Amino acid sequence: MADQPGVFWLNGALLAGDASCIDPSDRGLLLGDGLFETIAVRRGQARDVQRHFARLQQGCALLRLRLPWDLAAVERALDEVAVGNGLLEGGLRLTLTRGPAPRGLLPTAAARPTLMITGFCLSPVASPVRVIVSTQIRRDAASPLSRIKSLNYLPNILARLEAEDAKVDDAILLNQAGFVAEATTGNIFLKRRGKWLTPFVSDGALPGICREKFLESGQVEEARIHAAWLSSAEAFCIGNVLSVRAVSQIGPIAVPTTDYLRTGPG
Amino acid sequence: MADQPGVFWLNGALLAGDASCIDPSDRGLLLGDGLFETIAVRRGQARDVQRHFARLQQGCALLRLRLPWDLAAVERALDEVAVGNGLLEGGLRLTLTRGPAPRGLLPTAAARPTLMITGFCLSPVASPVRVIVSTQIRRDAASPLSRIKSLNYLPNILARLEAEDAKVDDAILLNQAGFVAEATTGNIFLKRRGKWLTPFVSDGALPGICREKFLESGQVEEARIHAAWLSSAEAFCIGNVLSVRAVSQIGPIAVPTTDYLRTGPG
Fold first, then answer.
1. Are A74 and A115 in contact (CB under 8 A)?
2. pLDDT at A109
3. pTM (2 decimals)?
4. How far apart are the first and last CA of chain B?
5. Closest Cα in chain A to B92
6. In chain A, what residues touch B164 (CB-CB under 8 Å)?
7. Residue pLDDT, tens place only, B214-256
């Protein structure tokens, strides 16, 4: 298993990180039929677990996926992986797929979902990033799949490759109407006329946990963000639960990085 | 491995069908980062292999995925799986993912793709189907991902669930402009004013192999198909390389099934 630390959790068992043990008929592998959550670990503790579970359950409802463990058991499993890998600063990835199944698009009632939890170390330092606006990929704001964290990540991967071609760190995705939706791995926070703004979920923003907390704290408000506002931003951040990074440049335009959003405790 | 016959091929080895052997860090599983082809087997022979390879290579070019075997070796592997499973009538599924990799959206140059080939039996009999038009899912005709056969199949799965709710067999996907694109598992062929028509790839049709052959033979021509034409069709089929099925009903409207498209030899 590429660069994973010591152990991971699969369907109730803690396994060695180099075990190749996924069923080749898993619908996660064959059809992208599943969900994931990336959960921050700080000072050895998984953070915002109940928020992640709430989002996971919304995804399960849309995909009609049954989580075959109660949430208390999943929370214990998250702890086991954090402890088993000696994680202090880093993250946990929870992946839920519809599991091994016969051919065909229609899920069978008998399918037993696959639940996997892996851990990773991560330095909490996040330096400013340079971004472009993707010309190739638009976010499909009307799709119900844009509101959940599914395994269908090829649009984001293509946009990230486009950023790499432009020798920058990330790409901003507009929706099909041309409004700002999100970045490939995080939500967008933009300061304009003294206020921090973030795109509406109905404009294609993933309902991110970090975004949710900024909105609840009153630091940020939702707005429809025009693409033209990006290059005139007073400040600009991309955030997910692992980090909030200042954007220092969008295309050829420098963005001030003197001001940025700070995450609260926890 | 759910309902798979005896053997499958993985990265150069022929394995028993119940082997759970996929690396949990495979990007196919974690991010839907890959492609597939479903290849018909008739009288024990894989059909249209060069056409499938051509489409696979187009997908590889878009995703910048390297096929780590030459095509002659892949063709031998297809035969090995067909023979190893005693397949006479059925199909082979070739799945290519970017393989095991460290965290992060950006593919690393060192990643070694995963190539897997499984086989399945299938009766060549295909009875008429009833369909609805999906209200939940629209095909993103502008996305380059709509022109390749990627692992990101959740839109089609949700539409298929919607068909199941309506107690019918399949769902038709319109594009965002409201024109007909395809069905969840095949291209659409519609007879209107005495001519068989199929949607343009630029309107969101997957460039299907069966569609390609019908176009080359002159049996079918490309057209922009208005949603309203579906219920007034003189005949209507959904086709992929495994079967061409007549549509007998769209929503509450019966469609004549006296006329249908026939596939040629091979």
1. yes
2. 81
3. 0.95
4. 30
5. A103
6. 106
7. 999 999 999 999 999 999 999 999 999 999 999 999 999 999 8
Smallest Cα–Cα separation from B250: which of B179, B168, B181?
B168
Model confidence over A29-45: pLDDT tens digits? Answer: 999 999 999 999 999 99
Whether residue B2 and residue A105 make contact (CB cut-off 8 A), yes or no, is no
Q: Which domains does chain B have, with CATH numbers?
A: 7-121 (3.30.470.10), 129-254 (3.20.10.10)
- Residue pair B253/B205 in contact (Cβ under 8 Å)? The answer is no
Q: How far is B198 from chain A (nearest CA, A)?
A: 22
Residue type, B145: L
Using one digit for the tens of pLDDT, what is the confidence trace for A231-255? 999 999 999 999 999 999 999 999 9
Q: Side chain identity at A19, as an amino acid letter?
A: A
Radius of gyration of chain B (CA): 19
A-chain CB neighbours of B33 within 8 Å are: 153-154, 157
Residue B1: helix, strand or coil by DSSP?
coil
pLDDT tens-digit map of B167-179:
999 999 999 999 9
User: Could you give the ipTM of this predicted complex?
Assistant: 0.95
**Each residue's pLDDT tens digit, A84-101:** 999 999 999 999 999 999
Chain B positions in Cβ-Cβ contact with residue A118 (cut-off 8 Å): 24-25
Residues contacting residue B228 through CB under 8 Å, at least 6 positions apart? none
